């Protein structure tokens, strides 16, 4: 399998290079904003279409602003897509859906197997624990350079809780409480975002009633876990029919 990496010079991109090679796959190259002559041990491109022409799958951890163009290019090239970009608008998500009609796409807010299982458990708990009795709160902490809040992973966990409860997250989400906010709304899913140091990622999901509290916690110690999971997803896509898949599919979890 020939694997290309969009944004190969980023922090995750550099780890992806190592993980692709460790998995015995062929690294077809990567995209970067500016190609410098010499020094690279793999082909570099500024145009994703050039990389796609040499690849069977492209792993993409770039930016939401590139998603629409990347979706069009990879769909036209017939190249599978592993997408780890979060914070997508409805229009950008629509471009992903459209591409998935022509190619296999694995899209995940987080490629860690542990986070995937936390999302599954959060959905099960949302389904089993009545919203009228159990308040759901999600706390996340990341490094000080992170620009979006709550994190894409926290929102994915929140959507899992909302799915279990049969509601849309947008209808029950509460974020960034400050000042005299009044009492907590029944059925709300709350978010708190902390930033500091160089923390890779910590997520905690709490279900609290008047009588008990259940907590799910996940801590990432190394960004390599995201690269390892993305490469696993790339291998899983080999020979798959067009469609939009998630890490639950890659891990072989049965549908709820």
What do you see in this structure?
By secondary structure, the protein is α/β, with parallel strands linked by helices. It folds into two domains: 2-107 and 223-251, Rossmann fold, CATH 3.40.50.720; 113-220, Dihydrodipicolinate Reductase, domain 2 (2-Layer Sandwich). The protein has nine helices and twelve strands. The protein has a seven-stranded parallel sheet with strand order 3-2-1-4-5-6-12, with helices on both faces. The chain is elongated. Its main location: cytoplasm.
The count of β-strands is 12
Anisotropy-based shape: elongated
Q: Give unreliable regions as ranges.
A: none
Characterize the main sheet.
7 strands, parallel
Which fold name fills CATH's third level, the topology of the largest domain? Rossmann fold
Tell me, rounded to a whole number, the average pLDDT.
Answer: 95
Spatial order of the strands forming the largest sheet: 3-2-1-4-5-6-12
The CATH class of the largest domain is: Alpha Beta
Strand content: 15-25%
Helix content: 25-40%
CATH superfamily descriptor of the largest domain: NAD(P)-binding Rossmann-like Domain
Number of domains: 2
Order of helices and strands: EHEEHEHEHEHEHHEEEEHEH
Structural class: alpha/beta
Count of helices? 9
Using only CA atoms, what is the Rg?
A: 19 Å
């Amino acid at each position: 399998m020939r694997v290309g990496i969009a944004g190969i010079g980023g922090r995750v991109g550099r780890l992806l290079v190592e993980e692709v090679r460790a998995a015995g796959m062929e690294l077809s190259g990567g995209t970067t904003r500016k190609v410098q002559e010499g020094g690279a041990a793999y082909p570099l491109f500024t145009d994703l279409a050039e990389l796609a022409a040499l690849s069977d799958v492209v792993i993409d951890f770039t930016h939401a602003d590139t998603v629409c163009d990347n979706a069009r290019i990879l769909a036209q090239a017939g190249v599978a897509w592993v997408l780890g970009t979060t914070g997508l608008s409805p229009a950008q998500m629509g471009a992903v859906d459209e591409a998935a009609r022509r190619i296999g796409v694995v899209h995940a807010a987080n490629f860690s197997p542990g986070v995937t299982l936390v999302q599954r458990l959060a959905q099960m708990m949302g389904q089993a624990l009545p919203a009228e009795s159990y308040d759901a709160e999600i706390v996340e902490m990341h490094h000080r350079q992170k620009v979006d809040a709550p994190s894409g992973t926290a929102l994915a966990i929140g959507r899992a809780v909302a799915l279990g409860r049969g509601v849309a997250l947008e209808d029950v989400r509460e974020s960034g409480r400050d000042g005299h906010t009044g009492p907590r709304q029944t059925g709300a899913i709350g978010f708190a975002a902390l930033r500091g140091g160089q923390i890779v990622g910590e997520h905690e999901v709490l279900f609290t009633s008047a009588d008990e509290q259940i907590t799910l916690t996940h801590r990432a110690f190394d960004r390599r876990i995201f690269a390892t999971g993305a490469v696993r997803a790339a291998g899983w896509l080999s020979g798959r029919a067009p469609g939009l898949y998630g890490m639950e599919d890659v891990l072989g979890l049965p549908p709820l």
